[in-house]
Amino acid sequence: MTKTLSRLLKATLAGGVALVAATTADAGTMKLGMTTWVGYGALFLARDKGFFKENGLDIDLQIIEEASIYMAAVAAGELDGNASTIDEIMKYRSPEFCFKAVYALDDSHGGDGVLAPEGVKSLADLKGKEVGMNEGSVSQFWFNILLKQEGLAESDFKITNMTADDAAAAFMADRIPVAVTWEPHLTLAKNAKKGQVLIDSTKTPGLIVDVVALNCSYIEKNPKDVEALVKGLNKAHEFIQTNQKEAYEVMAKGVGGWLSKPEDFTASAAGVTFYGADRNAEFFKDGKDGESGKLVTLGGEIWGSYKKLKMDVKYDDLVDTTFLGAK
What we know:
- By secondary structure, this protein is α/β, with parallel strands linked by helices.
- The chain is 45% helix and 19% strand.
- It has helices at 3-26, 41-48, 67-75, 86-90, 138-149, 164-172, 185-191, 216-221, 223-242, 244-255, 262-269, 277-283, 291-305, 315-318, and strands at residues 28-34, 57-63, 81-85, 99-108, 112-116, 130-133, 158-161, 178-182, 196-200, 209-215, 272-274.
- The strands form 2 sheets. The chain has a 6-stranded mixed β-sheet, with helices on both faces.
- Strand 1, helix 2 (41-48) and strand 2 form a beta-alpha-beta unit.
- Helix 2 crosses helix 10 (244-255) and helix 9 crosses helix 10 (244-255).
- The chain is globular, with a radius of gyration of 22 Å.
- The N and C termini lie far apart (48 Å).
C-alpha cells in the first residue's frame, strides 16, 4: 500500500470514527418506566426496529410493575416519564410534580373484565356480593364507570381490596364470587369454563387509555426528542398494520414477562386497540371538550370522590398535544 493511500485510509477511518462519536454525542436520550402490558408493545417495536434511533433518539424502557415506584422515579428525575393509563397518572399530578401526556398508545378493548358466576345477567344481579378488586387502580376506575352506567355505587357491594392477579386467583378458587381483573385471567377463566366474563372493556371503548407522559421540564428542554418519540411511535403503528406477525414477534420479545411468547402476545393484543397518528388526532381533538378531555373530567370525578387526587387536575394540566403533528 502506498504512503498516500495509507494516509487517505487513515484519514477516512478517523473521519468515520469522529462522525460516529459526534452522532452518539448528539443523540437524545429518554428513560421510561411501565408495567408489563401488551399495549406498550409499540414502544419496544419502535426501539428494536430502530424507528426512534433514525430520528436521533436513544430510549431506555424499564419494566417496573408498580405504578407508585415508577412515578416516584419520574418525580426524582431517575426516569423522564412513563407509560400508563390516563386515570392512573392523574392521581400523581400535583403543583410540584408536573408531567404531561404527549401520545396515546392504546385503549383496552376486551383486555379488562368482570368475572362473575354463570347465569348472572347484569351488575345489578350482583348487589350485596363480594367483589375482589384492586382499589386505587384502573380496575376501580373502570368498575365505577360501569356502576355509574347502571345507576349503582360501590356501596351496593362488598369490596375486598386485592391485586387483579389475586382477585382472579380467588375467583378461580371459589373464594370470591366476583373479580375485576384483566388478561390473561379472562381467557384463563374462559378456557377453564369457570363462571363467565360478565362484561369486558369492548363495551367501554376509549375509557381505559394508555399514554406516554413526560416530565414537564424534559418536554421543555428536549422538544426534538419528544418529536422523535412521536415519529417513532407513528412508524411503529404503521408497521403493525402492514407486518403484524413480525411486529408481534418483536413486541413479545421486547415486552417479555408473561407476554414473551408471540402466541401469548398475539392473543392479548386482541384485547387492545393500538393507536397511531390518525387515532391520536381523533382522541385529542377539541381538547377539554373532546374525547380525551371528557376522560380527564371523568377521572377527576371518580378519583376526586375517593380523595385520590393531589390537585384539581384540568385537561391542560395533564396533556400536551404540541408534538402530535410530527411526521
